[in-house]
């Protein structure tokens, strides 16, 4: 069985669309898209293309392979979905032909996001669409694939599973492969799966590979997946900043024992805003969500230990909310398009400037404005040099010490008396130290520089609990807890006091209104 081709005669685009000189060059009308697609675009309220769309869509419509580098929030989802849908429409692709387009995404949340946009764009088309991902019902997925899914969104592991084990999953007529967030796919360990997927798919196809960062592994994946001489499109190579111009970014220098107090104060004052807070571990997200909800600061939480059904429900609840707070790990940092996020707070900083960029990419999307706040200890100020080298401009924010809610005693009493919160706090404390010990920039994020008494205080403990963590490449286990010094297991240096003077945690440049 062959895919039915559409015989078409070239038309002058402006004549066919009745364009006039007043039509903007970046208007979707200039692309000569099919009427069902244009109807969906109009219904979604899109009028003009972003830079990545204007540069990627024409060569993709012409059948070229593209290697794209674009900042998060640049509109690349539409940049690959529109040509994919037009390809299926032009070929009159039908379910009996199997799958014509496969879009590979690193996470289930991002896959759901892409699937949602595809559903809207295909509203007036006859082509079928579907999604396969880890955590979902595999049997139900297989039944749909056997009936024919023209456009398929997938996570790598589940896609490979179906390619190898689902009879009736037809990909011999595949015309296009999209690999979105390729760097992230490789970072989370899907390198071998991607190689197998590419080997199992037809060689005669169009391929689009998007990656926010260009690494050696991404280059290797591009070499085996793209045809020779792909078009390389980098929409941010000449920009002075690696992050969005509409993003106001700042950092606050805050010692460990005031971190939670500052976060609590900040969230209380911004309950009418949409805020995402990043933590370094699932246990930290879990504990802080339990604690904040217990003390009447309503928050949602999203992390990798949750079941898929819970993660999906949380994601859509926050996405549809006008205001609210979402606590999460980096599982939510890449690609998710959540409308109108006002603040990105990095409570636990990443040690990789690229991950910083991906995190703050959740705000100031698609031309909107947003703000980002990075928490740093005095000993972590060296991280700013790396951000500067990565073209990330930050200003120092100050929060007046008198404006920070002093709820430390209440926190300590709560953790002491509530068995479940105490247990959760201890796990979060252990995970924080474990994550800190795992940082690659050890000169900046040095676990021996931590004042454990102050760190423990931020989790509600008056005395550092004894916990086992793994230190260094040898994987040896160490018990961290009380030592003879009053500062915890390390003797704390005086630069805390020098940098953190009377007003060092203030809000000179931050407006709460």
From TrEMBL:
**Region: Disordered, residue numbers:** 1-21, 472-513
Q: What Gene3D superfamilies does the record point to?
A: P-loop containing nucleotide triphosphate hydrolases (3.40.50.300)
Q: Where in the cell is it found?
A: Nucleus, Nucleolus
Protein EC: 3.6.4.13
Reactions accelerated catalytically? ATP + H2O = ADP + phosphate + H(+)
What the entry lists under Pfam families is as follows: CTE_SPB4, DEAD, Helicase_C
Query: Which branch of life, at top level?
Result: Eukaryota
Q: Write the record's keywords in alphabetical order, separated by commas.
A: ATP-binding, Helicase, Hydrolase, Nucleotide-binding, Nucleus, Ribosome biogenesis, RNA-binding, rRNA processing
Main site of residence?
nucleus
Spell out the Polar residues composition-biased ranges. 503-513
Q: Does the keyword ATP-binding apply?
A: yes
Fetch the PROSITE patterns from UniProt: DEAD_ATP_HELICASE, HELICASE_ATP_BIND_1, HELICASE_CTER, Q_MOTIF
GO CC list? nucleolus
The UniProt comment on domains reads: The Q motif is unique to and characteristic of the DEAD box family of RNA helicases and controls ATP binding and hydrolysis.
Family classification: Belongs to the DEAD box helicase family. DDX18/HAS1 subfamily.
Report the PANTHER family cross-referenced here.
RNA HELICASE (PTHR24031)
Functionally, this protein is described as follows: ATP-dependent RNA helicase involved in 40S ribosomal subunit biogenesis. Required for the processing and cleavage of 35S pre-rRNA at sites A0, A1, and A2, leading to mature 18S rRNA.
Q: What is this protein called?
A: ATP-dependent RNA helicase
Q: Which organism is it from?
A: Paramicrosporidium saccamoebae
């Amino acid at each position: 069985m062959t895919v039915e081709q559409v015989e078409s005669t070239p038309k002058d685009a402006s004549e066919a669309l009745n364009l006039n000189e007043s039509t903007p060059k970046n208007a979707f009308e200039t692309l000569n898209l099919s009427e069902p697609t244009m109807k969906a675009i109009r219904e979604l309220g899109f009028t003009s293309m972003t830079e990545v769309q204007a540069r990627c869509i024409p060569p993709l419509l012409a059948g070229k392979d593209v290697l794209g580098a674009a900042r998060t929030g640049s509109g690349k989802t539409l940049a690959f979905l529109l040509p994919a849908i037009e390809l299926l429409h032009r070929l009159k692709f039908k379910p009996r032909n199997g799958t014509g387009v496969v879009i590979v995404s690193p996470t289930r949340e991002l896959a759901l996001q892409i699937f949602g946009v595809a559903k809207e764009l295909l509203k007036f088309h006859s082509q079928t669409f579907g999604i396969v991902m880890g955590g979902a019902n595999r049997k139900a997925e297989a039944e749909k694939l056997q009936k024919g899914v023209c456009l398929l969104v997938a996570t790598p592991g589940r896609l490979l599973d179906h390619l190898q084990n689902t009879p009736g999953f037809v990909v011999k007529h595949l015309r296009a492969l999209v690999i979105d967030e390729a760097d992230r796919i490789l970072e989370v360990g899907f390198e071998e799966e991607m190689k197998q997927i590419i080997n199992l798919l037809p060689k005669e196809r169009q391929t689009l590979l998007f990656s926010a960062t260009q690494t050696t592994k991404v280059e290797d994946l591009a070499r085996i997946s793209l045809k020779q001489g792909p078009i390389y499109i980098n929409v941010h190579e000449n920009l002075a900043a690696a992050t969005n111009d509409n993003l106001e970014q700042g950092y606050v220098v805050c010692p460990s024992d005031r971190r939670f107090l500052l976060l609590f104060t900040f969230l209380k004052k911004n309950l009418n805003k949409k805020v995402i807070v990043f933590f370094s571990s699932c246990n930290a997200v879990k504990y802080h969500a339990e604690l904040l909800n217990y003390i009447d600061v309503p928050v949602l939480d999203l992390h990798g230990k949750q079941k898929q059904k819970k993660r999906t429900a949380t994601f859509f609840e926050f996405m549809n909310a006008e205001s609210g707070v979402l606590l999460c790990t980096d599982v939510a940092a890449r690609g998710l398009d959540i409308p109108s996020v006002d603040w990105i707070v990095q409570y636990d900083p990443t040690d990789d400037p690229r991950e910083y960029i991906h995190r703050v990419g959740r705000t100031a999307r698609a031309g909107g404005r947003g703000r980002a706040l990075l928490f740093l200890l005095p000993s972590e100020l060296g991280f700013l040099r790396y951000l500067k080298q990565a073209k990330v401009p930050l200003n120092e924010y100050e929060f007046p010490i008198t404006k920070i809610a002093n709820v430390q005693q209440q926190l300590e009493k709560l953790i002491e008396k509530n068995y479940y919160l105490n247990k959760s706090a201890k796990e979060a404390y252990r995970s924080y130290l474990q994550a800190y010990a795992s940082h690659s920039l050890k000169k900046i994020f040095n676990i021996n520089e931590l004042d454990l008494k102050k760190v423990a205080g931020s989790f509600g403990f008056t005395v550092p609990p004894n916990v086992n963590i793994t230190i260094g490449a040898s994987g040896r286990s160490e018990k961290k807890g009380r030592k003879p010094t009053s500062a915890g297991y390390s003797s704390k240096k005086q630069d805390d006091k020098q940098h953190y003077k009377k007003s060092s945690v203030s809000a000179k440049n931050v407006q709460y209104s």
